[in-house]
Amino acid sequence: MKRALIALAFLLLPAQSFADQFSSAVGRYRILGSSRIHFSVAQAGGAAIEGEFRRFKGTFLLDRNVGNSKVEISLEPGSVKAIDPRVEEFIKSEPVFDVANYPVVSFRSTDVKRTGDASAAIDGQLSAKGVTRPTRFSIAFKGQSGRTLKFRVTGKLSRALFKMDVGTPIYSNMVVLDMDLVGQKL
Amino acid sequence: MLRNTERSWGLVSVLFHWIMAALFLGQFALGWYMQGIKDMLEQYNLYQWHKSFGFTILGLAVLRALWALASRRPKLPETMPAGEKKLALGTHFFLYLAFFVVPLTGWAIVSTSPLPIATWYFRLFVIPSLPLGISLHSEQVWSSIHGFLAYAAIFLAAVHILAALRHHFHHRDATLIRMLRPGYEDREAASKTN
Predict the structure, then answer these.
(1) Which ipTM value was assigned to this complex?
(2) Which of A181, B135, B167, B181 could staple B175 via S-S, CB 3.0–4.6 A?
(3) How far apart are the first and last CA of chain A?
(4) Could you give the CA distance from residue A144 to residue B141 in angstroms, rounded to a whole number?
(5) Rounded distance, CA B117 to CA B42, Å?
(6) What is the pTM of this model?
């Protein structure tokens, strides 16, 4: 993450200010409510099932050493918003998230690796519906303004691994997560 | 035996009649029952069955209509008053029509619903939606039409069944029996002449 930021800062900023710029970016961040967590499940012969989770919280630590950066995020699947209330009810129900018994989905990073000038891969443990699995997300730096940083985070998960593979194979087993995370420095 | 004659229904028409009668009554019962199911997954599965059987009826309706157009229809009993004959033919016509419009309006519900649920025909293949605008309002309008037509069709079916029973028990003619036994009246006529 650090190198990514350095590289980006190098491109965007006059050379003399770049060290200041990066050292000011290092630190702890709180994920803001203006972030967006979107999911999509493809359907054969029809529109994908997609929507957003509206309630979530999390923090991340941007370390000088990229590998020491950390992310922790949790969301409430009960806050799902989709095209139709019946879709939302089904996503909350027992065959999918079973929010009555498992109200929270959480992710905690275990390793962060730089993959490009402004991108990284995050490995971590994702817990949902009583199952915890190693999961990887791709993260791309999308800009800084004042004390906030923006990232685009994407990942693909197998629904079957989390006992949510209802409706396969008409509905794809893979759920595509697509998040725009906005962090505010603490 | 396969084809209709002036007096008898052939096997093909008899099979069309009873298979579609069973499907139609089953669909009415399933359509009524599935709406009250609370478990959404079970409800989803029941709707998929309902849609699969509905498309089966639509497909059979096309074949049956072609068969009917290519076949002669056995004459109605000569003792039947002209008004009753008209009523019978009208009922048959509207029942045939129902085999098309009830499934088609069901297809319109699937096609206009914001629910991203395609029809998975007996878990074999997906039937695409009709190119109609998607909105909850359209879905509700088509649902009302579909439900109304289903009740109208079941009313016609009741008239049809009562009329058949009246022929059998009151008039004691062969109207019902010849729909149960392919070639019935031809054999009866043959045994009389022998």
Answers:
(1) 0.76
(2) B167
(3) 18
(4) 49
(5) 14
(6) 0.84
